[in-house]
Every structure is written in C-alpha cells, then in structure tokens.
Design brief:
- This protein has 5 helices and 8 strands, in the order αβαβαβαβαββββ.
- With 191 residues, it is α/β, with parallel strands linked by helices.
Length: 191
C-alpha cells in the first residue's frame, strides 16, 4: 500500500511539473514600434503598404544590431509593410522567419495571442513583437502594465487612444506570466 501511495505521489509531482512547464510563459517579451515610415505615401499615414523611409531603414538596422544571434526565439509582426520591413532587418540577422500576428494590429486579438505565447514558449524564450504606436500601449496593458506606470512609459493620448509617439525605443516585459506586476517589470529602452 505504501508503494502505491509513493508511486501515486511521484506521478502527481511529475504531472504538476509537466503541466507547469507547458503553461510557463516566455521569460521575456519585447515590443517595438515599427521604424519611421516614408512621408507622403498615397493612401495616407495608415496605408498598409507604406514603406520605411531612409531614416526608418537606419532605425530598423539599429534595432537588429541591438540583438545578438541566439537571444530571440520568435519574431511576430503586424501585416503592414512598415512593421514587416522593421522585423525583417532583425529576422535577417538572427535567421528567424517573422510571423504575422493579428494582435500586433488589433487590440481585440491580444488576449488570445498572449495565451498562445504562454502555450508555445518557455521561461528561457524571448519573443519580439513589432507593432504600431496605437497598439503598443495595449500590448503592455494586456501584459499587466499597471496604470500607475503609464507616465513612465511616456504614453500620449490622442482622441482617446494611448500612443507611443517615438521611434528607437523598445519595451521589455520581464517575466510576463508573473502575477501582481510592478513598474519595474516593464522597461523602456533606447536602441
């Protein structure tokens, strides 16, 4: 009887470890706004095919230079030309194929996307998201950014939308699965 109880305990512990590791989130999520876009593009500033400007190409290359090979597990981007072009510079350096994520352009898709990240990546993984000025704040908020941290993140408010009104910065979420996050779990870094 003791052997059966001991065996059952071992099975329970192994199952808990397996389930816990399967649900462990990535160790780090990095969110970046696309680089500077070409001015005067037909279709306006929100045109899906608006490319990067020369300055934007330099910014995207600086972003790629910020990372070392082997430090990123996945790169996700919205489907616009400017985000994909920004992600491409990093992907080319790291040898990773960027993937399209609806959450990088649609706030209603963020919660489900984060659940997918938590299922597919572990604590040693770093995931990069390339998004837009009006989506980045909401990616941070859905990851647990407290309202008291909005000023530190330098969000601006435009017609009820929170925005990140600058280029050349990235946001780092340390331990995204951690409960009760504080401002120190979120960093804004220049690259």
């Amino acid at each position: 009887m003791k052997k059966q109880a001991c065996f059952a305990s071992v099975i329970f512990v192994l199952a808990a470890v397996w389930v816990g590791s399967a649900l462990a989130p990535p160790g780090k999520i990095i969110i970046v706004r696309h680089a500077e876009k070409l001015a005067g593009w037909p279709g306006g500033a929100a045109g899906a095919f608006q490319p990067l400007s020369e300055k934007g190409l330099k910014t995207a290359k600086r972003l790629a230079a910020f990372f070392k090979k082997g430090t990123v597990s996945a790169i996700y981007s919205s489907a616009t030309t400017r985000t994909l072009h920004t992600a491409f510079q990093l992907a080319k350096k790291l040898g990773i194929q960027p993937e399209i994520a609806k959450a990088c352009s649609d706030t209603s898709a963020i919660a489900a996307f984060y659940q997918t990240l938590h299922k597919n990546y572990g604590p040693d993984d770093t995931v990069v998201l390339v998004s837009h000025s009006n989506i980045v704040p909401y990616l941070l908020i859905k990851a647990g950014l407290p309202k008291t941290c909005f000023k530190k993140m330098a969000f601006t408010n435009w017609q009820g939308w929170l925005l990140t009104d600058y280029y050349g910065k990235l946001f780092v979420i340390e331990n995204p699965g951690k409960k009760g996050k504080k401002c120190t779990d979120f960093k804004r870094i220049s690259f």
